[in-house]
Write a structure and sequence with these properties.
It is a single chain. The protein is built from 19 helices and 15 strands. It has 534 residues and is an alpha/beta fold. The protein has helices spanning 44-60, 91-98, 102-121, 190-205, 215-224, 230-233, 239-248, 260-272, 301-316, 332-336, 340-345, 365-379, 383-397, 401-407, 412-415, 426-444, 463-474, 497-507, 522-533; strands at residues 7-15, 19-26, 31-38, 69-75, 78-83, 88-90, 134-137, 143-145, 156-157, 187-188, 318-325, 349-354, 451-456, 480-487, 512-514. It has 3 domains: 7-83, Phosphorylase Kinase, domain 1; 88-272, Transferase(Phosphotransferase) domain 1 (Transferase(Phosphotransferase), domain 1), CATH 1.10.510; 301-514, P-loop containing nucleotide triphosphate hydrolases (Rossmann fold, 3-Layer(aba) Sandwich), CATH 3.40.50.300. Helices cover 41% and strands 16% of the residues.
Length: 534
């Protein structure tokens, strides 16, 4: 039981996986309130940021279906949120202890859909809909939504693709394909509808749609696998209800329900029927609440095919250099992000860095940034995985660990401080550095987890980084490494350092694959226009 000055804690209302809710008496206001305390195991700074975001997002909402925060209190290094009075339990607790009938579940699903619709009306994407954040009131089975720590007020959002599956492993079972960041498309309100589909699937069948404990495998399932139809698991689930849930679980947002209120209307039809639910046409009152921007890549089929072929070649073994030239804004980065889907399946790593026009005086800056991303991904994978990587790095880097520590100080979080090496002449230091980088990459660029290094705006690359890229390509060392470089070919002139490096690589018989990106033709523009009017 917690203690908080100014409040007398009366009872524990809810003990969820990542937060607790207490009933309390406010000494100042002489009133009953609830106090919410976050219990996540994340680091303090992240936990504090999430609690504050949850507080301010929920406080601005006017929906009666949101568990309202009243004020925040700091005590003993923790943040406590004083909430409106509430008596009830989580949806999961209600399900496990009430043994609801199918009709009970439809009624609750209808209320949840309505509650979610009111939140979406205020242009908020919740992004964390799961049974612990849906609350059922003790009296009347009223609905309250909580857990706005990931929510956004944008009508759509582009998730960051460089996020490790382990960084989003909490409640990943309820995450839409687009929210994983691996679909190369933005997410909108419909991500919450997918999550609700997972919740309803679990409530009806007793199991999640996909059964795996590995975060990367779960993401791959969301992206590519179809869940078993609920009505084929048990005949107690009406076919129409099963069809509604499968519609919510469509991979592409445009083929799901387009609004929570449209879902509510179809659930109401199911609820109002007695006995067998007569088949009816779904989505008759389902209207899209957002403008759908094109997510398909038009006119890039051949380029995308070449990109994927390059990845699968290095998956089998080898190091390749793949170049994507084209003018600024033509879609080079969007094309390259298509690699995230197969990478998830193959448990690979995608890291990236971008050269800046004014940062040429900082050698290796984009590569350092890419390696920092890689280390953060590794550190997010849990203690067992981190221990495995720590052992591999120490073993394979051997006497080169101190060199890597000087180059990427963040690696000390993983392997600890290392003893300095004896001094070498300048040429020896340079060679030792390049060998250390090659060994470091070799730890991660394996057949069971290939590595993709994407370097953007190579036309602004510094000479030291170009020299390092050249060294890695002519000394592949049995690695599974794909280096992708995007650059503005209209800014490469005769004698440019990047052009000089390419000439050296050609002379040394290094395979270079170029995938030039050209402006869309009239045919492609017509296809895009036709797609948007359907």
């Amino acid at each position: 039981m917690i203690t908080l000055p100014g409040y007398r804690i009366v009872d524990t209302v809810i003990e969820a996986d990542t937060w607790d809710l207490y009933k309390a008496f406010s000494m100042q206001d002489k009133a009953i309130v609830c106090i919410k305390k976050d219990t996540k195991s994340t680091n303090y700074a992240q936990r504090k940021a999430e609690v504050l975001h949850d507080f301010y997002m929920a406080k601005q909402l006017t929906s009666n279906y949101v568990l309202k925060p009243l004020q925040r209190k700091n005590h003993g290094g923790d943040i406590y949120i004083v909430m409106e009075p509430f008596s009830g339990r989580t949806l999961m607790d209600w399900y496990e202890n009430s043994k609801p009938t199918v009709k009970d579940l439809i009624a609750i699903a209808l209320r949840i859909a309505h509650a979610l619709g009111t939140i979406h009306q205020e242009r908020v994407i919740h992004k964390s809909i799961h049974p612990q954040n849906i609350l059922i009131a003790s009296q009347g089975n009223g609905i309250k939504i909580t857990g706005f720590y990931q929510s956004t007020t944008l009508s759509s959002e582009l998730p960051h693709p460089n996020v490790s599956p382990y960084q989003i492993k909490d409640h990943i079972a309820y995450m839409s394909p687009e929210q994983t960041g691996k679909m190369n498309r933005s997410l909108d309100y419909r991500t919450d509808l997918y999550a609700l589909g997972v919740v309803l699937y679990e409530m009806l069948t007793g199991d999640l749609p996909f059964q795996t404990d590995h975060p990367a495998e779960m993401i791959h399932a969301h992206l590519t696998k179809l869940p078993i139809d609920p009505s084929s698991i048990t005949t107690k689930i009406p076919v129409m209800l099963s069809t509604i849930i499968m519609k919510l679980l469509e991979k592409m947002p445009e083929t799901r329900y387009q609004s929570a209120f449209g879902l509510k209307e179809d659930l109401a039809i199911c609820l109002n029927q007695t006995g067998t639910i007569v088949p009816f046409i779904l989505q008759q009152k389902d209207k899209a609440s957002v403008y759908e921007r094109p997510s398909e890549l038009f006119g890039r089929e051949e380029a995308s095919k070449q990109l994927l072929e390059g990845f699968y070649r290095i998956k089998e073994g080898g190091t390749e250099f793949l170049l994507v030239p084209g003018p600024s804004g033509i879609g080079k980065t969007v094309l390259i992000n298509e690699l995230h889907k197969p990478l998830v399946k193959e448990k690979g790593y995608f890291i990236s860095g971008k050269f800046m026009h004014l940062n040429k005086e900082i050698p290796y800056a984009p590569i350092i940034h890419a390696f920092q991303i890689l280390l953060r991904q590794i550190l997010s994978e849990g203690e067992a995985s981190t221990a495995k990587w720590r052992s591999r790095l120490i073993e394979e880097l051997d006497t080169y660990t101190a060199v890597i520590v000087n180059f990427i100080p963040e690696i000390k979080w993983l392997i600890g401080s290392q003893a300095e090496q004896s001094d070498l002449p300048p040429e020896g230091i340079h060679n030792r550095f390049r060998q250390a980088i090659r060994r470091f990459i070799g730890v991660f660029a394996k057949g069971d987890h290939p590595l993709v290094l994407f370097l953007d705006d190579l036309q602004w690359a510094d000479s030291a980084t170009l020299d390092l890229i050249h060294y890695l390509l002519i000394n592949p060392n049995n690695q599974h490494l794909l280096i992708i470089g995007a650059y503005r070919d209209n800014e490469i002139f005769v004698g440019h350092p990047f052009e000089a490096m390419l000439e050296r690589l050609k002379q040394e018989k290094v395979q270079i694959t170029k995938i030039p990106i050209h402006p869309l033709t009239k045919k492609h523009i017509k296809e895009w226009g036709w797609d948007k009017t359907q």
